[in-house]
């Protein structure tokens, strides 16, 4: 992108910026200039004496470091989660439910310097290496933090990797290993890593001060590790002093650089959660109480801005939904542990967000990969990347006495065991376990519509996306960053519990541009690309403008038929209307109506399959058969479209067929595309989606389906399925009609 275009985009944003945001940004720039001046002169480096006297309110005489240490252990402060109940009792419960040997094996690997970060095996940073990129032989400049982004050490380097190394979430794994085993080597490693980092990262120097969210996540990691290792011989007064001083400096930076406007969603909430934890647990800091109060007010005043009324995160990204939700859960539970009030506003927001998590979860226990992802987790107890967030539901079960949350948590215990006290754990174990009240669910504010056959592991599941791309985006030419994708009218589908049609996920923020764009644009989703029209215009990494949001026509539920219909209108002539019917929770009927005023362009319909799925294309029968471990999906189409099936191969580009399981990681998978000529004003593109099991297709066609070109309707598709006879008709500007054994469904 040229400098001229970038300048014009900035001017467009400035012209629509609220006055209070302009004033805030001006004040922020003045602060940064003052910080830079102090950094050059060395005035921003806090001496030990000033920290003790000015920040902790103690005299620097008479062994102040030991008095500070004693005050922490004997003075008044909030309890932490590890102190929620007697350690021996908790240990017994943990060993009953969790495999603690895995903790020790992973912790041993960390002690040996072996890590897996963002899907990459890397070496743990050593002393003096905390500014180095763990993948490339380059180092980020050790300059004033605001200048770092201007001096990128190489063209291909991705800042996410050095940030991930410096988040220090793997310290929690070491802390758990010490807590469960008592082996001092784990606590020693925790102290060595933190001490090394402090020595290598002076206040406001380098890449690890560039993002307040990174400081927040690191602070939370340190606090968990500190309390896990509390009582270790290595957690002495000298270590406590440098630890507390660095925690103070990071808290001070967060307070002064909260992302009120630059990143007002998960960044702001993560920063507030980190500041809240520092303030509540380290009361010997003179700013501690003020930080706790400020942070909690941010969390409370912004929860309505983080979630739609139905509970879905406004960023329209399932991983970030849980990133934000985890910060809220952690802060609320910490207050409850210390008998501090948590408002109904906060609790209601958390419960609704958990409700969304429950309904979006697929039968295999994982979330659909909607929107961006950077593998970020706010509740971090193991290093394995996963789309399984059912542990959040176990917390929700005890917070809200929700027996349906308990059932759908499916025995996910770890979050519960660390974040809840003994009473809450007892309540969970004695609570009933019941099915959710609704099988299917309309999340109408965020625009997700879930159809499922039942709440069992082998149930069918479909999630249809008819919501806005994300909050904060503009329909005009004003650019704005967001984690939402161009995925309107896309859907995910599982049959007999197996994911078949899936979202492609997301691969990289700062890596190769073609991969970054691909996973965010239409071709990476189960939707249709309409000629030259686009759901949004790309205008830089993470940034969209001229966004076109879909609209819902209807969501209907009857005894044997569920229907959802949405449309995206590009202009007066071009539109895409998609309707999906779930027939008796057995199979699905899909009808796309493509309007183009006969522009003689092409539409391309994309279908992305899970990496575990294999497909066969039978062009003679007009069928695609997808199979996955003894179950699968038959896709019946009706016209002689140009059909292409592609699967990614190492060295091929993003269009070949890839599924991004997590940040920086992708697997080859099948992608199917139908090329649909837009040669008349309205083109119908109907499909039957028929599940099968145990290598037996329970489908047979009775009569060839034909298109009446004059009336623009298909004669009935007549077929047998699951020992019943069906007839499905498709016609322009109407819903598909379905007869079962001659009776309307």
What does this 3D model show about the protein?
The protein has 20 helices and 30 strands. Helix content is about 35%, strand content about 20%. With about 750 residues, the protein is of the alpha+beta class. The model has no long low-confidence stretch (mean pLDDT about 95). The radius of gyration is 28 Å and the shape is globular. It has an eight-stranded antiparallel β-sheet, with no helix packed on it. Strands 25, 26, 27, 28, 29 and 30 form a six-stranded antiparallel β-sheet that branches. A five-stranded antiparallel β-sheet has the order 3-4-5-7-8, with helices on one face. Strand 3 (about 440-445) and strand 4 (about 450) form a beta hairpin. Among the domains are: about 1-45; about 275-435, Alpha/alpha barrel (Glycosyltransferase); about 445-695 and about 700-745, Beta-galactosidase, Chain A, domain 5, CATH 2.70.98. Helix 4 (about 65-75) crosses helix 11, helix 10 (about 210-230) packs parallel to helix 12 and helix 12 (about 265-280) runs parallel beside helix 14 (about 320-335). The longest helix is centred in the first third of the chain and has 23 residues, at about 20-40.
Enter the CATH topology name of the domain at 447-695 and 702-744: Beta-galactosidase, Chain A, domain 5
The CATH architecture of the domain at 447-695 and 702-744 comes to Distorted Sandwich
Strand order in the largest sheet: 12-13-14-15-24-19-18-17
Q: Profile the largest sheet.
A: 8 strands, antiparallel
Shape: globular
Q: Could you name the ranges where pLDDT drops below 50 across 5 or more consecutive residues?
A: none
Per CATH, the class of the domain at 447-695 and 702-744 reads Mainly Beta
Helix fraction, binned, reads 25-40%
The number of helices is 20
Per DSSP, what share of the residues sits in E-state strands of 2 or more residues? 15-25%
Mean pLDDT: 93
> What is the strand tally?
30
Distance between the termini: 53 Å
What Rg do the Cα atoms give? 28 Å
């Amino acid at each position: 992108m040229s400098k001229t275009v970038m300048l014009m985009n900035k001017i467009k944003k400035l012209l629509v910026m609220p006055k209070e945001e302009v004033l805030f940004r001006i004040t922020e720039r003045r602060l940064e200039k003052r910080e830079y001046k102090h950094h050059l002169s060395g005035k921003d480096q806090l001496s030990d004496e000033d920290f003790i006297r000015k920040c902790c309110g103690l005299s620097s005489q008479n062994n102040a470091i030991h008095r500070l240490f004693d005050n922490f252990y004997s003075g008044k402060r909030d309890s932490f989660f590890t102190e929620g109940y007697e350690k021996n009792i908790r240990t017994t419960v943990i060993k009953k439910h969790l495999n603690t040997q895995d903790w020790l094996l992973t912790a041993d690997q960390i002690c040996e310097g072996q890590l897996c970060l963002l899907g990459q095996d890397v070496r743990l940073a050593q002393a003096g290496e905390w500014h180095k990129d763990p993948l490339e032989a380059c180092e980020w400049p050790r300059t004033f933090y605001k200048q770092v982004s201007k001096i990128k050490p190489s063209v291909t380097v991705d800042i996410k990797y050095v940030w991930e190394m410096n988040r220090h979430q793997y310290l929690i794994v070491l802390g758990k290993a010490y807590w469960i085993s008592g082996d001092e080597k784990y606590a020693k490693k925790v102290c060595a890593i933190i001490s090394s980092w402090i020595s290598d990262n002076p206040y406001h120097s380098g890449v690890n001060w560039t993002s307040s969210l990174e400081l927040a996540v690191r602070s939370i990691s340190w606090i968990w590790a500190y309390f896990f290792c509390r009582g270790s011989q290595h957690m002495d007064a000298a270590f406590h002093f440098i630890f507390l001083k660095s925690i103070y400096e990071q808290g001070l930076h967060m307070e002064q650089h909260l992302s009120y406007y630059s990143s007002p969603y998960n960044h702001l909430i993560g920063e507030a959660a980190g500041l809240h934890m520092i303030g509540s647990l380290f009361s010997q800091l003179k700013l501690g109480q003020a930080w706790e109060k400020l942070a909690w007010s941010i969390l409370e005043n912004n929860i309505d801005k983080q979630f739609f009324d139905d509970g879905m995160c406004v960023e329209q990204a399932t991983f970030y939904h849980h990133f934000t939700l985890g910060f809220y859960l952690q802060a609320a539970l910490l207050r409850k542990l210390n008998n501090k009030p948590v408002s109904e506003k906060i609790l209601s927001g958390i419960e609704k967000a958990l409700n969304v998590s429950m309904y979006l979860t697929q039968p295999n226990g994982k979330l659909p990969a909607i929107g961006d992802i950077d593998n970020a987790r706010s509740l971090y107890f193991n290093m394995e990347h996963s789309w399984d967030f059912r542990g959040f539901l176990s917390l929700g079960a005890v917070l809200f006495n929700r027996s349906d949350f308990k059932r759908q948590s499916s025995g996910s215990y770890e979050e519960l065991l660390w974040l809840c006290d003994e009473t809450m754990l007892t309540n969970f174990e004695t609570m009933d376990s019941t099915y959710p009240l609704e099988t299917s669910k309309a999340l109408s504010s965020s625009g997700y519509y879930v159809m499922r056959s039942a709440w069992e592991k082998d149930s069918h599941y479909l999630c249809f996306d008819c919501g806005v791309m994300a909050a904060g985006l503009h329909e005009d030419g004003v650019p704005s960053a967001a984690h939402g994708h161009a995925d309107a009218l896309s859907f995910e589908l599982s049959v007999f519990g197996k994911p078949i049609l899936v979202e492609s996920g997301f691969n990289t923020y700062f890596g190769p541009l073609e991969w970054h764009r691909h996973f965010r644009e239409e071709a990476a989703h189960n939707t249709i690309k309409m000629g030259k029209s686009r759901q949004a215009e790309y205008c830089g990494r993470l940034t969209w403008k001229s966004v076109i949001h879909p609209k819902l026509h209807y969501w209907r539920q009857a005894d044997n038929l569920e229907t959802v219909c949405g449309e995206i209108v590009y202009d007066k002539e071009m539109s895409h209307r998609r309707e999906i019917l779930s027939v008796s929770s057995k199979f699905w009927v899909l009808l796309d109506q493509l309007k183009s005023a006969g522009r003689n362009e092409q539409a391309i319909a994309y279908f992305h399959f899970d990496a575990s799925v294999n497909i066969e294309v039978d062009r003679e029968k007009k069928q695609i058969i997808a199979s996955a471990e003894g179950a699968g999906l038959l896709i019946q189409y009706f016209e002689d479209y140009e059909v292409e099936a592609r699967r990614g191969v190492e060295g091929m580009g993003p269009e070949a067929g890839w599924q991004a399981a997590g940040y920086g990681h992708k697997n080859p998978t099948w992608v199917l595309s139908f090329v649909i000529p837009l040669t008349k004003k309205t083109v119908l593109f109907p499909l039957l989606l028929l599940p099968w099991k145990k290598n037996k297709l329970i489908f047979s066609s009775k009569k060839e389906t034909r298109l009446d070109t004059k009336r623009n309707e298909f004669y009935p598709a007549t077929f047998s399925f699951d020992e019943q006879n069906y007839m499905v008709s498709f016609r322009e500007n109407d819903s598909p009609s379905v007869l079962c054994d001659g009776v309307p469904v």
